[in-house]
Amino acid sequence: MTNTIKQIFHSPKFVVGFCIMAFILLSMIIYPLVNPGNPLEMIGLGSFQKPGTYVSLYDSIDSSSTIFKLPDAENNRISQKLKDEDRIAIMNWLIDYGVSESDINLSDTNSLLDLWWKNYDSSILVEGMTKAKRNYYMRLNKSLESAKRTEEYVVSHTDKELNELETVRTIENTDYVNIQDVANVKRLPLGTDNFGRDVLKELVSACGTSLRIGLIAGAIATLIGLTFGLLAGYVGGIVDDIIMFITNIFTVIPSFVLLLLISYSIGQDQRGASTIALVIGFTSWVWTARAVRAQVISLRKRDHVNLSKLSGHSLIRIIITDILPYIASYVVMAFILQISTAILAEAQLSMLGLGPKTTEVPTLGLMMNWSMLYAAHLNGSWWAYFPVLLTIALISFSLNLMNTGLDQVFNPTLRD
Amino acid sequence: MKGYRKYFGKKIIWLIITFIAAVLLNFILPRLLPGDPVAVITARTAQGVSEASAVKQIYEDYASKFGINKPMHVQFFSYCKNALKGDFGLSFSQYPRPVSDIIHDAIWWTICLQFPAIVIGWFIGNFLGVLAAYIRKGFDKILMPIFLFFSSIPAFGMAIILLVIFGIHFKIAPTSGGYGFDLIPSFSFKFIGSVISHYHLPFWSIVLISIGAQAVGMRSMSIYELNADYVKYSRFMGICDRKIVGYVFRNAMLPQITGLALSVGTMVGGALVSEIVFSYPGLGTVIYQAVTMSDYPLLSATTLIITIMVLIVSFGIDIIYAFIDPRIKAAQFD
């Protein structure tokens, strides 16, 4: 046994897969400790906030500030406002206005802006320009002017009794606040989803649910498959015929169709994560049953089994002591594959809107479903779906890798 | 020919049995399970109706319309009779359009998308798999994990990734639909061009996924065959490498063909979901609409059609297999 385990851990493929899986499991355990709370809490108003660190504007007004005279502060301020398409728009305006193209340097912000300030006038009518376009340039000019401005901001609050504004603070353009001094800072490494929920927190929790679905479904499928396979292979006769009849039918009828029909018929209210896991388990045992049966048939006529039979051992004892150990490695591998198929199946079902009921637990499939419903892929909110996809792919990749690694250990002909 | 006849006879009997089982399942499952589709429909229609007797009236009306108040076997025979005539009832969500009409519109999109994609993916995958097994070393070390990773991505995931990269970022392919939204299906150059440009992304997303899965399987099959005695023997005999690879390819291919017959169902399932990502006008999108609008007749008919398609395809592959596998050919001479 120890020898086998040692051998397994010598297979590079298994080790890589194992490490990925261990990493996923560890982060599932550790992350909720670091960042506790309900993963489905809607913290943000509005959907799909970008990933990053959110600093409370309100609190930073109260924080003590220091003065830094940074040479590139003004440039940064302007280039923050000036996106690539704005630069191109500015260039187009300048060309239309009559500046020669060779004078314009797109990447040099200073020279580009110098040309812009020198030439732009909102009253100039460039030929062939629509009103919308003219308004766009006016807006652009205004936002650039506000970025150039050096006057301080005045923050005030309303005095209720006198009904007038009382100045709280003036903010210079050289004032800086240390982020440590601000009371409320929210780090959202993966932003928020369509409901304003923390994607990373949700993802970690969803990963746990999906793995649980995978485990339950895989365990059920393996158990049914193993029982059927053992019975059909070892007992043979009419039992074999009946089981093979059922198995043959279910191999050709796509399990996807069965899954669809069953989860639709169960109805929205009954569809919890564990129900879905059960349904997936009950529809995906066929492969295991077929393979176990084939293996058992080749074992049935071996000498040690015959010897056991002659000694009058019971059927259960023969199966457990003489047959199971020989197919154990295969069953473990089938189990691993079942887990990864079950996770994929849950994701597919949820994409169709047939996944677990949505309000209680997040699953990887549900996260995908919501982000697709709110068109995250069309409006560029990659953080809402890409990490989820990557997690699904990584989980099933690591399981597949472990499986290949095991295959090479137990199946010497496949070894490198 | 006797061997063939026996083989085909057996296969056809199985086809018929599975077909009957599929129809039965399609009929029985919704009736056995706790949820009551008619209750769901009633709840939808009776929204805002507060009077209990009115709701009951609506329920009974639907019950007699769908015939669920008749005994089970009567229902089953009328179901079969209508299904044989291609009559699957009326759709709820697109009332009063018949279900068969919706499916008729969608089915060719799905067949034309998935059939070539799965076949091409299968060929490329098998070719790369043999190559990886034969060359080994660097090629295999790099390709093998890539294949595995590709086969681990769900089909809809690949669809989304391709959509975002080529449809939205590079803007070289349209992002949704089967043809331009401003066109009406016809045999004009403009329409066909539009169909082809919309075809690329869903097509390649399915191809890429099946390449991964097939290559992994073919690689281990080929490695298995390369270690077989006949390969070693041929090597001792001094037969040139290319010829040996040819033998290995043929032998490793056979299990792959049966593998294809058996996995067509799974592949179609994945590919159907990726149709949704592109809003491709095929059966996948129809299923999605049926689910979101709780249109039971449509869903049930669609799943039945998909099952029949998969049955026919796997039967077809079994027939082809009979002509390729020398062991079945040999059975003729027994």
Write the layout of secondary structure elements.
The complex is a heterodimer of chains A (about 425) and B (about 325).
Chain A: H1 2-8, H2 12-34, E1 52-55, H3 57-62, E2 65-67, H4 73-81, H5 84-97, H6 109-119, H7 131-148, E3 153-159, E4 164-171, E5 175-177, E6 185-188, H8 199-235, H9 237-252, H10 255-266, H11 273-283, H12 286-300, H13 303-310, H14 315-351, H15 364-373, H16 382-410
Helix pairs in contact in A: 2-8, 2-16, 4-7, 5-6, 8-9, 8-11, 8-12, 8-14, 9-12, 10-11, 12-14, 13-14, 14-15, 14-16, 15-16
Chain B: H1 2-32, H2 37-45, H3 52-66, H4 72-84, H5 99-135, H6 137-152, H7 155-169, H8 189-226, H9 229-237, H10 241-277, H11 283-292, H12 296-324, H13 326-330
Helix pairs in contact in B: 1-12, 2-3, 5-6, 5-8, 5-10, 5-12, 6-8, 7-8, 7-10, 8-10, 10-11, 10-12, 11-12
- Given as residue ranges, the uncertain stretches of chain B (5+ residues, pLDDT < 50) are none
- CATH superfamily heading of the domain at 99-292 in chain B: MetI-like
SSE arrangement of chain A, N to C:
HHEHEHHHHEEEEHHHHHHHHH
The averaged pLDDT of chain A comes out at 86
Oligomer: heterodimer
**Strand order in space, largest sheet of chain A:** 1-6
- CATH top level of the largest domain in chain A? Mainly Alpha
Describe this structure in words.
Chain A is mainly alpha-helical and 416 residues long. Chain A is 63% helix and 7% strand. Chain A contains 16 helices and 6 strands. The mean pLDDT of chain A is 86. Chain B is mainly α and 334 residues long. Chain B has a domain at 99-292: MetI-like (MetI-like fold, Orthogonal Bundle). In chain B, α5 (99-135) runs parallel beside α12 (296-324). Chain B is globular, with a radius of gyration of 25 Å. The model of chain B has no long low-confidence stretch (mean pLDDT 82). The chains are: A mainly alpha (416), B mainly alpha (334). Chains A and B meet through α9, α10, α14 and α16 of A and α1, α6, α7, α8 and α10 of B.
